[in-house]
Structure formats: structure tokens, C-alpha cells
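Batch job 17 of 40 flagged for manual review because the log was empty.
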Amino acid sequence: MTRRLTPPEGDAAFTNAARRGATVNAQRRRGVQGGRIAPHRSMIGLRASPTLLVDLLVLPAILLISVFVVLDRLMDAWRWLMESLSGPLALGDGVGTTIIDLLPSVSVAVPVYLVEAGWPSNSQLVAGWIFTAVLAFVGAALRGGYVPLGYLLRALAMLQLSAQVWFTLAAPPFPYSLSVYGSSLLATGVVILLLAPFLVGATYFVFDFPLQKKLALGVLLLGHLAVLFPLQATVHVWVIQHASMLAMPMLFLVFGVLLDIFVYVALYGWAMSWRSGRELDAVERRPPVPSRRMRRISASA
């Protein structure tokens, strides 16, 4: 049996190639100033532990119970705010009450504006066609860094176009009244407030942020939505009252629940930038040498 012997120069070439490969792999994980590029937080696996289980179940339950405790007082605050705005904005005959059953034995009194809107008149339809054309024209004319805004405007134009066609061809009455629309918007807000703790728990509490930061995001989200919902309903009702039911489809589909989702997306993105001080930030991101020295080295090279 014969053995094939590798010449010494072959071993040296193999060793040099291995060293170059190791050097390249090490440099691939370094930034422009020499700091190590850490993996994205979504790629870092977390070990299951009793503490993590508490964060996923107990913290959302505490936030949910807190919402239930203050729900009646929150509805009273919404009523006071809406009554304060209904007079200056001339929103119908004041504020009424709609009873929403959350559970078989649990209900909540949601305030609602007692106001109605009519079928769009011919002048309002013409104004709507002009508004749709302006959205489409401006959206198509935007260039450069404004292209994303142009896409948004064109999407809004297509949505409003469908509303224009429907109200032009259909006949009154509209299936939904403005008061029912406003009460449904606020009732959806109450449901979102009750589900938000578990949404935060499933998407943010799974990461190893300190307890106070997890609670901070939950409180920020609930507080922001608690203030947003009555103001959002007020704006919708005021716009529809003056622009007729022609404005309802765009307000509902774009500036309704979708806007509430964007609120959480914005707060979530901000909260994910907080330093955890633990496993998520265990990788050293600082460069091994000061940046001033790095610039000198680059200049000399």
C-alpha cells in the first residue's frame, strides 16, 4: 500500500490559506472603526427560565388588571373630554352612552357623539373628485427621496377613488350612521386597550430587558392609546360631519385601527433601542483602539 506524500511547499501553502481565511473571517465581523459587529437582537436566542415565564404571563396580567380597575374612570375621562369638545366643534346634540358587553357579566359604558352626517351632495362629490385627482397627480410627480410619500398618496388616491365611484353610483341611505361609527371606533379602542398588554408581552417581554423598561413600554403604550382614542374619534366625527359620509372609508381604513398599530410600532422600535445591560448587549461594540488613532493609521497606510 502506497502513501501519497504532500510536499513541504504544499503544507506551507495550505497553512497560509488557512491563516488568510481566519483573518478574513475575523475582519468580516469588524466595523469601519474596528469594533465588533454584533448580531441583530432578533437573532439572539434567549434561554427559557422561570423569570422569562413570569415576564410573559404575570406582567401582562398585571397590566390587564390595571386597565380593568381604571376602565370606568377612563370612560368618565373620555366623556368629560368629548363633552368639552362637542360644544366648540358643534358636534351634534352632545354625548350619549353605548353599553358594550366585554364578557357575559362585564360591560362598559362607552361615550358616543350624538351626531349624524348626510349623503354627499353634488358639490361634495365634485370636491372629492378634485381631491382624488390632486392626490394622484402629486403622488406621481414626487421624485427622489419623496418617492415613498408618492406611493402613499397614490394609494390614498386609489382608496378614495373607490369611495367616489361607489357614492356616485349608489343611492342613499348609507348602511352605517355616524353615531354608530363613532361608538364602534371607541369600542374597538377599549378592546385594543385590553389586548395591548399581551401584545407587548408576546413581542417585547421575551427579550431580556430590565423589569422597569418592560413596564415602561407597557405603561407608555396604554397611556398613549388612552389619550389617542377619544381624540381620534373626535377628529373622525368632525371630518365626516363636514365632508359627508364620503370621507368615512379613508378615515376608517387608513386613519383608524391602522394608525393605532403604527403607534405601537413606533414605541416598539424606540424601546428596542434601549440598552438592556445583559444578554442582548453582551457583545463588545466599541473599537479596540480610539477612533482618532484609527484615522492616523488609515492616513499612514
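Reviewer: the log was empty due to a logging misconfiguration, but the result itself is present. The two ends are 54 Å apart (CA to CA). Unflagging and moving on to job 18.
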